[in-house]
Specification:
Layout lengths: L1 E14 L3 E8 L3 E7 L18 E8 L4 E10 L2 H4 L2 H17 L7 H14 L5 H15 L20 E4 L4 E3 L9 E3 L1 H12 L12 H29 L7
Antiparallel strand pairs: 1-2, 1-4, 2-3, 4-5, 6-7, 6-8
Helix pairs in contact: 2-4, 3-4, 4-6
The chain binds zinc ion (ZN).
C-alpha cells in the first residue's frame, strides 16, 4: 500500500551500507520509522529532504514489517532556526523530547501542529529558554499529561500562596497535602507555568521570568516529564511489542 503524509524528521540512524532509518513525526500516522534506501549515497534522490528537523512531504510503501520511503520533498527546512547554535540546540532538545514522549504510530494532530508551530516561531523567538519551557508544557498538555495547575493536584483543594510542586501527584499541591519530596514553588513561578501554557508563540517574548526561577521551573518540569515518561514506557511495554525495524 502506498501512503502519503507530511512529516518532521526527528532522528536518522545509519543502516546497512547506504540506508537510513528515520524517525518521523508524521501528520497522519503519528511517530513512525521509515527506511530510506540509498539515502546516504551522494546522488540520493532524497537530497536534503531527510535532514534533521526538516518538514517534508513523504510517500512511502507500507509493507508487513516495515515502511519503505519512496519519495521525499522539502516543505520547510526551518533555515532560520538552524543559523544559530542555541536555536538549533533548543530544536534538537524538542526533537529528543518528542522521540521519547510520543508513542509510536498514534496519530495526534494536536502534537503535530504544536511542533510545526513551535519550529516556525523558534527562528525568531528572543527568549529561547522560556520558549523551550513553553514547548515542554504545551507538549505535555497535547499528550494528555499536563501538570494540574489550577487546583491542588492531590485532593482538588483551592490553592493559596503557599504552594508545592508534586511530581508524583501531577502538579501543584496545597499546604495541607504536600509531602516530603515535593518542591516549594513561589506563586509567581507557578503563575508563569500557567501563563506559558496559555500564551501564543507570537506573544511569548512579552512574558518575563527571572533566570533563576526559569531554571527552577525547567527542573520541575523535567522531573515531571521523567516521572511520567516511566509510566508511559511501562504501559507501552505491557500493551505492545516494539515495532520491527528490519
Ligand atoms: Zn490539597
Amino acid at each position: 500500500m502506498i501512503l502519503k503524509t507530511v512529516g518532521l524528521i526527528l532522528r536518522a540512524i545509519k543502516f546497512r551500507e547506504s540506508d537510513l532509518i528515520l524517525t518521523v513525526l508524521s501528520r497522519d500516522y503519528g511517530k513512525i520509522a521509515l527506511i530510506a534506501k540509498g539515502a546516504r549515497r551522494p546522488e540520493s534522490k532524497f537530497g536534503a529532504a531527510l535532514d534533521l528537523l526538516t518538514l517534508s512531504e513523504l510517500v512511502f510503501y507500507e509493507g508487513e514489517n516495515l515502511k519503505l520511503l519512496k519519495e521525499a520533498s522539502i516543505l520547510n527546512d526551518f533555515r532560520d532556526l538552524k543559523r544559530e547554535y542555541e536555536r538549533l540546540e533548543t530544536a534538537l532538545h524538542a526533537a529528543s523530547l518528542l522521540n521519547h514522549l510520543i508513542e509510536d504510530e498514534h496519530p495526534d494532530r494536536a502534537v503535530f501542529d504544536l511542533c510545526e508551530d513551535f519550529l516556525s516561531h523558534l527562528g525568531h523567538l528572543k527568549k529561547l529558554r522560556l520558549g523551550e519551557l513553553a514547548f515542554k508544557l504545551k507538549l505535555l498538555r497535547a499528550a494528555g499529561l499536563a501538570p494540574r495547575l489550577n487546583r491542588c493536584a492531590r485532593r482538588g483543594h483551592r490553592l493559596t500562596s503557599e504552594l508545592w510542586f508534586s511530581t508524583q501527584h501531577g502538579g501543584l499541591v496545597c499546604a495541607e497535602c504536600h509531602q516530603a519530596g515535593d518542591a516549594r514553588i513561589e506563586p509567581g513561578t507557578a503563575q508563569s507555568l500557567k501563563m506559558l501554557l496559555g500564551t501564543r508563540w507570537e506573544r511569548l517574548d512579552r512574558l518575563a521570568l527571572y533566570d533563576d526561577k526559569l531554571e527552577i521551573a525547567h527542573r520541575l518540569v523535567d522531573e515531571f516529564i521523567g516521572y511520567h515518561l516511566r509510566d508511559v514506557r511501562r504501559s507501552l511495554t505491557c500493551s505492545r511489542s516494539s515495532p520491527q525495524r528490519e
